[in-house]
Amino acid sequence: MSYEFDFKAAQAYDAFFEKGGARHRLDLEIKLISSLISPIPGKRLLDIGCGTGLSLEPFVDLGMNLTGVDPSAYMLDKAAERLGHRVDLHRGTAEDLPFDDNSFDTALLFFSLEFSNRPAKAIEEACRVAREQVVIGVHNRYAPQNMARRLKGFFFPDMYSHAHFFSVWELKIMMNSILGKVPVKWRTTVQFPFLSGSLISKLESLRFIQWSYWGSFIGMRIKPVPKFRTRPLVLKTRNHKINEPAAGLALGFRIKE
């Protein structure tokens, strides 16, 4: 069962991201996630743990078919206020999604896997309903900023007190145990969490910067089914003479003299 945000937590969630520094970090995180998803008009995207709709909002005007699911009725109310009828919203948990197999092209877990008591089951469900890819965005447990958050949570409980932070290695091990050797691509962002501005945004966009293991936010893309290259088989045939008698018939009969 996932952690469910109550009314007070739902109100605090949006208020937290309205701050200047938090908004700058959120923009960097959504930019990384968007680059991993590669939005295409008409594609079906499911946001698992959509919360108040902050992670879906950037995709609304891109022509995608958007669906959100969240266990908290309070979060869904906020999402409906923000997104209106442009997104199909459902109540449900990441561990037991109310959708058929392959219902979507992409499944997104953005700041939601941390709040699942069974993250492996949540990933299994995401892979079940996603036809093409699963994209995950989580807090990096080894980033200095997140270490400070975890320490602070011991003394001043907040929403992060209920979160389990992940590392790149931990996610990879989990993927291999669930899916085997599947294609995985990852990057990180928010390398400089206490700085902002256009120059910092440009630095954060550099690929060699995003290959760091210490960024505050990890973005990972998984292909649920491995892709194999195939080659046509060569069929070998034997040509038989039309008038050549079958071997069995030739040996089975003898002409009387």
Automatic annotation (TrEMBL):
Keyword Nucleotide-binding assigned to the entry: answer is: no
Annotated Methyltransferase type domain ranges read 46-132
Q: What keywords appear on the UniProt entry?
A: Methyltransferase, Transferase, Ubiquinone
Q: Name one GO molecular function term.
A: S-adenosylmethionine-dependent methyltransferase activity
The keyword DNA-binding is annotated on this UniProt entry = no
Q: What GO biological process terms does the UniProt entry carry, in alphabetical order?
A: methylation
Q: Pfam families in the record, alphabetically?
A: Methyltransf_11 (PF08241)
Q: Tell me what this protein is called.
A: Methylase involved in ubiquinone/menaquinone biosynthesis
Q: What species is this protein from?
A: Desulfobacter postgatei 2ac9
